[in-house]
């Protein structure tokens, strides 16, 4: 709940396990006081340090021991005695970049307002605090949304131009948090295509630690996530502050420690190549930041993110609904297919429980390789002479739904679209644009380009029975310029994202029954902004079961398992050459929205039988995937073991999956320690034929007979029983 104590001009933002407090200082600045474990509503101003630090500066007109550089600040700005990271940088027409932003009122709303043009988490009670800069006639509103049951604060900012001339935002971050000491480590999710989100821990020190993307997308190189943790924080114990941005474009998250040995964390749209003109009367809205506090380790943080995203971010029409189990033809055929081949794949999985066929790249334009066709969203009649209908009919005849791949943000120079509108691709006149996968990026800052995409995709969706769309995006942005923006070309990347969100909004709302899966060369745009529109995302083009343990482990830090799209593919694996058992591939792909991506017409009979068994098992555990609590029992980056556990909210059912990558003959006893069970209740593990109390399982552990052979997996079900 949100409480304002008028007497001491202090705001308290509270949830079950968390307090966040700040006050209006005597000078009218918003002074941060506390963020952490829930505490009583007391006067906290005693904790503000006043010191006259040499070789610094003071608040104008204030005594020498008053400097914004020493105080915690909810909205730090540049040039007025605080030298640390600012949240906002404004420049007016005269080139003035400094100003005093002082308190100018607040309100507490019962419902959280939407963020114009941006995806955001649904919420209720929201505090809005207004700051005004009199000279520039500018106003900032800081938004804070709290949740009764979750230690979460949602933040964003709106900047309003109330004056008569334009000003430019050279930085407009979404949040700032000041922590009182600097003994922290950073947890981040760096990676690359085929190895996205490999969790990393880095000790923080003096200076500024930044994670960011400059690629126009949130990126597989660095996820828009940062957590700061204590040295002794582990999976289930210790303090964590986790930050995640509901944004799919260039972002920056920064943690800075300066002369006071404190830590300031700020983040939002990356200001590296950003500047935004705010005309008189206009409002600029920043993306939303999600802040999660956990006193129960990284695992506690993840479970909070998962609950938040499942309950308040992902489209409620799909969030808790069983996911389609798909067969996708990409790794089976790539672009080399015929109607007959596709129908043969569909028929081969009849009766296995697979319920959706997804036709991947290659069905449109003149698309026989990846150098042509993108932009031409009509059926390739040379390849599929009777169009999509016979394939859709075949899927329906075999009890399956039909899904289709698109990559609408892109264009190949060898396409009708490019020949008609070469200027629609992002480029600088007189410079040959950089290509990526032989394609160019459409300029989504232009309305007519967005309209074309909405209309061409809608036409296919209107004219065909399509239940599922896989929305791909296979390169990052370059040549950042758009003639219509002229000197404001630094707006391009953000305008691209806004155009993209507008397209998503139109299609997702225009076709409410279609299930959208996101993809960007696999998991290179995996962020909360995408999850607002697309309930699941193809987690990585790397479908190798072993690599997937590490990728899915990192992805689970903030994103619930049901949002990870995971497929069983053929071996030797197409990305790594690795051979893993078919059973292991199934077990690892089950830790998400599962599916298959191999030429099932070539599968031996036993594998088809296994597929059927696997799908049946998956359907039995899918409720845990959709709503269970995740416990990561091991870090696969550190040990020769991957082990994850899901526990139902009522603690009646649980499921454990483990993989031992390298088989060690005559190895040590492998013991795993379940978590999250009810200590007094009895649980049966049918695979072991044993019933023990929850506290016995959690403290004495499960003794595992290590799988024989490399990359072997084991699964255990745990079912509460009466004793
Ligand atoms: C990307 C996707 C793949 C597949 C191909 C098609 O790489 O991640 O799953 O759809 O494009 O070109």
What this model shows, in words?
This protein has 723 residues and is an alpha+beta fold. Helices cover 19% and strands 29% of the residues. The chain has 12 helices and 38 strands. Strands 6, 7, 8, 9, 11, 12, 14, 15, 19 and 20 form a 10-stranded antiparallel sheet that branches. Strands 21-22-23-26-27-28-29-30 form an 8-stranded parallel barrel, surrounded by 4 helices. Strands 5, 10, 13, 16, 17 and 18 form a 6-stranded antiparallel sheet that branches. A hairpin with a 5-residue loop joins strand 32 and strand 33. The two termini are 41 Å apart. The model has no long low-confidence stretch (mean pLDDT 97). The structure holds alpha-D-galactopyranose. Alpha-D-galactopyranose binds at residues 330, 360-361, 405, 472, 474, 519, 521-522, 538, 541.
Number of strands: 38
Give the N-to-C terminal Cα separation.
41 Å
Task: Categorize the overall geometry.
Answer: globular
What is the percentage of strand-forming residues?
A: 25-35%
SS-derived structural category: alpha+beta
Poorly predicted sequence stretches spanning 5 or more consecutive residues: none
Which small compounds were modeled alongside the protein?
alpha-D-galactopyranose
* Rg from alpha-carbon coordinates: 27 Å
Helix proportion of residues, in percent?
10-25%
Number of helices: 12
Largest sheet: number of strands, sense, barrel closure: 10 strands, antiparallel
Q: For the residues shown, what is the average pLDDT?
A: 97
């Amino acid at each position: 709940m949100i409480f304002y104590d008028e007497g001491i001009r202090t705001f308290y933002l509270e949830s079950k396990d968390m307090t966040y407090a700040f006050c209006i200082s005597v000078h009218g600045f918003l002074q941060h006081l506390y963020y952490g474990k829930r505490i009583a509503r007391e006067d906290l101003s005693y904790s503000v340090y006043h010191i006259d630090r040499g070789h610094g500066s003071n608040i104008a007109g204030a005594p020498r021991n008053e400097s914004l550089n020493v105080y915690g600040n909810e909205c730090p700005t540049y040039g007025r005695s605080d030298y640390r990271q600012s949240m906002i940088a404004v420049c007016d027409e005269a080139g003035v970049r400094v100003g005093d932003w002082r308190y100018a009122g607040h309100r507490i709303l019962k419902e959280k307002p939407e963020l114009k043009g941006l995806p955001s988490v649904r919420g209720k009670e929201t505090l809005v605090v207004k700051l005004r800069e009199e000279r520039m006639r500018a106003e900032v509103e800081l938004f804070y949304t709290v949740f009764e049951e979750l230690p979460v604060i949602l933040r964003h900012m709106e900047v309003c131009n109330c004056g008569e001339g334009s000003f430019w935002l050279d930085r407009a971050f979404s949040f700032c948090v000041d922590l009182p000491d600097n003994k922290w480590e950073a947890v981040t999710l760096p990676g690359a295509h085929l190895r996205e989100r490999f969790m990393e821990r880095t000790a923080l020190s003096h200076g500024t630690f930044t994670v960011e993307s400059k690629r126009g997308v949130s990126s597989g190189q660095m996820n828009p996530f940062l957590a700061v943790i204590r040295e002794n924080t582990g999976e289930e114990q210790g303090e964590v502050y986790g930050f995640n941005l509901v944004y799919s474009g260039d972002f920056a998250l920064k943690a800075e420690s300066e002369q006071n040995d404190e830590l300031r964390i700020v983040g939002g749209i990356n200001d590296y190549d950003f500047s935004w003109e705010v005309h008189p009367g206009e409002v600029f809205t920043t993306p939303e930041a999600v802040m999660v506090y956990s006193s129960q380790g990284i695992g506690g943080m993840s479970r909070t993110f998962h609950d938040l995203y499942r309950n308040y971010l992902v489209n409620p029409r799909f969030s808790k609904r069983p996911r389609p189990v798909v067969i996708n033809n990409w790794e089976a055929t790539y672009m080399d297919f015929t109607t007959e081949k596709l129908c043969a794949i569909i028929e081969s999985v009849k009766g296995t429980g697979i319920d959706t066929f997804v036709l991947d790249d290659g069905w449109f334009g003149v698309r026989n390789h990846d150098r042509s066709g993108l932009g031409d969203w009509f059926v390739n009649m040379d390849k599929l002479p009777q169009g999509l209908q016979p394939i859709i009919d075949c899927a329906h005849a075999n009890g399956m739904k039909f899904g289709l791949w698109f990559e609408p943000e892109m264009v190949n120079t060898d396409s009708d679209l490019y020949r008609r509108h070469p200027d629609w691709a992002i480029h600088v006149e007189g410079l040959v644009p950089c290509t990526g996968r032989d394609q160019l990026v459409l300029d989504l800052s232009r309305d007519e380009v967005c309209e074309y995409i909405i209309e061409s995709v809608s036409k296919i969706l209107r004219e065909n029975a399509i239940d599922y769309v896989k929305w791909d995006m296979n390169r990052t942005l370059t040549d950042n310029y758009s003639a219509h923006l002229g000197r404001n070309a630094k707006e391009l990347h953000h305008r691209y994202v806004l155009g993209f969100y507008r397209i998503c909004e139109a299609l997702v709302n225009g076709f409410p029954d279609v299930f959208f899966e996101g993809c960007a060369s696999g998991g290179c745009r995996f962020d909360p902004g995408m999850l607002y529109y697309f309930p699941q995302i193809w987690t990585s083009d790397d479908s190798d079961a072993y690599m997937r343990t590490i990728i899915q482990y990192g992805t689970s830090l903030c994103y619930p398992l049901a949002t990870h799209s995971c497929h069983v593919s053929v071996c030797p694996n197409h990305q790594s050459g690795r051979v893993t058992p078919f059973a292991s591939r199934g077990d690892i792909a089950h830790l998400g929205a599962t599916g298959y991506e191999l030429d099932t017409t070539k599968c031996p009979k036993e594998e088809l039988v296994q597929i059927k068994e696997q799908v049946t098992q998956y359907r039995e555990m899918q409720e845990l995937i959709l709503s269970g609590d995740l416990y990561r029992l091991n870090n696969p980056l550190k040990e020769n073991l991957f082990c994850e556990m899901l526990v139902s909210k009522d603690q009646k059912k649980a499921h454990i999956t483990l993989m031992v990558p390298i088989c060690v003959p005559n190895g040590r006893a492998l013991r795993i320690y379940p978590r999250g069970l009810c200590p007094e209740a009895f649980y049966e593990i049918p695979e072991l034929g044993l019933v023990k109390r929850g506290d016995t399982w959690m403290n004495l552990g499960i003794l595992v007979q290590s799988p024989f052979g490399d990359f072997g997996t084991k699964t255990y079900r745990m079912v509460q029983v009466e004793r």
